[in-house]
Amino acid sequence: MKSNKTSGVPWRHLRLCMHILAAIFLLAAFGVASAQQKIYFPSAEYANKFEMAKKVGKPIQIFGYLTLPENPPAGKISAVVIAHGSAGVQSKDTGFWAPYFNKLGFATFVVDSFTPRGVESTVDDQSLVSNAADTADAFFALKFLAADPRFDADRIGIIGFSRGGTASNETATKSFRDNVLRDNKNLQFAFHIPAYPGCQNSRFRKNGSFDKTGAPMLFLMGGKDDYTPAAFCLDQIKGMQAEYPGVIDYRVYDGAHHSFDGNQGVHYLRMGTSTRECPMTETDIPSWSRRLVAGGERLSLDDERKLYKDCMVRGVTVGSFDNKYREMAAKDVEAFLRKIKMID
Length: 344
Hints:
The longest helix is centred in the first third of the chain and has 19 residues, at 11-29. Helices cover 33% and strands 27% of the residues. The radius of gyration is 22 Å and the shape is globular. Helix 4 links the parallel strand 5 and strand 6. It is built from ten helices and 16 strands. Strands 3-4-6-5-7-8-10-11 form an eight-stranded mixed sheet, sandwiched between helices. The protein has a four-stranded mixed sheet with strand order 9-13-14-15. A two-stranded antiparallel ribbon has the order 1-2. It is α/β, with parallel strands linked by helices.
């Protein structure tokens, strides 16, 4: 018969000690991640961006992962909302970008817009979650953080990836901000960092203006992105730069695919949907009339839906073989934050 003791120590006690030592090791190795708090906050559901610009959304509970910097600066803490892409919250969001901003002195709030809605991914079907959801959730995350006395309401920024990158772009639109936040419309993000966003139908104008808050923006895009091609964003960016000189910048990384900040190899997603073959559209916010940017043809909401349904294609390339583009983006983000005086 085998003994259940080792050197006089009961095996169950030894096993408990081993578990405790393993936990201590993990805490030491991943101190930042261990400080994450899962926090629920109220948001609102909008069927589309027309509703987000005009109506009150249906209440919904969302959650995010809050992490504080290990050595926070004196006084109130700056913060960054991190908005995920079509694959949901990824390890790069919580394991790279959150610690990255924490080291720069920011609290981070990684918002999960999918799990509370019962969805894991929209890569194969973007209609599973409203294209207004990420943007609305980001606004309500801003409101939630601004109400917390630990954080500086005037120094809360946003970085987003793919779908989240579109949210990072569109949260700079004043008409969306004013309607969604309503009684808190004095709030706005201090900066916006859209990473490989979709720009084909994110052009919103009001009285001839791009209707932006004027907060600094840095777009990060891949030169080989076949999911959300950079060319569509560049056209919009140039127009915004002319209207808001000195506050909107961009980087296009030659050779980089979509999700270039992921380092788990380059993958071809056969069923992934893309609107890369679709024309750009522009929306006038007061009238909500739509038109094709190229020819000026007017589109009804049904026309636009049919247009994008017909021109949507499948097959996209994502990821990176190494940290090359991630490191380039990290350096550019830090330089941007220094330029706008969010960090010393």
